[in-house]
Design brief:
By secondary structure, the chain is α/β, with parallel strands linked by helices. It has 9 helices and 8 strands.
Amino acid sequence: MKVAAKLEFIRQQINQACQIANRKPDEITLIAVTKYVSIERAYEALEAGIKDLGENRDEGLLNKWESLGDKPVWHYIGTLQSRKVKNIIDIVEYIHSLDRLSLAKEINKRASRKIKCLVQVNVSAEESKHGIAPEDVIPFIEALHPFENISVEGLMTMAPFTDDEQVLRDCFRKLNKLRGQVQALNLDFAPCTELSMGMSNDFSIAIEEGATMIRVGTALVGEEE
């Protein structure tokens, strides 16, 4: 199926979720996760009207950037090793996986402008997932104050891979509540307006629970690798 057809179906689902939550569809940024597809497929996504692309490996990001340049807004959504920051720092608009001070220091050192970062939170406490424990998020964000090239735009999480809707809702609600706690601090360097949560299997639930960014791969661009 062409990306344009998949996009139309996904936008219908976004609209339905927004109606349920009494939200507006333009509050939602749809990020096409292109890590498993070719440059041609990523270009097809842009042609269909998608503006935001997400990659989780520096090699994949650089490879696509060489062909697509700054046509899309680039989001780095995977675990980022400090030694690879220099490879992507001039390309990305958002980094969704800030989860440790050593990484923050490297981003701050390498950046020539403010980088929009989201703090990755391991809400589900799964050992297989990266991210900061919820109780450590506020101290971590407060410790980012000295880094003039980092703006904490929001929080990101990966929900458990499950069909249990209540488990998913609990996860997303916890992140939304945590965002509210950060916003209440009124930190200039951490407006924390974004909630990056929800993927192909659960983005509708995430939107109902407050997501502002959803990361959709398989359901939108498919898999080619």
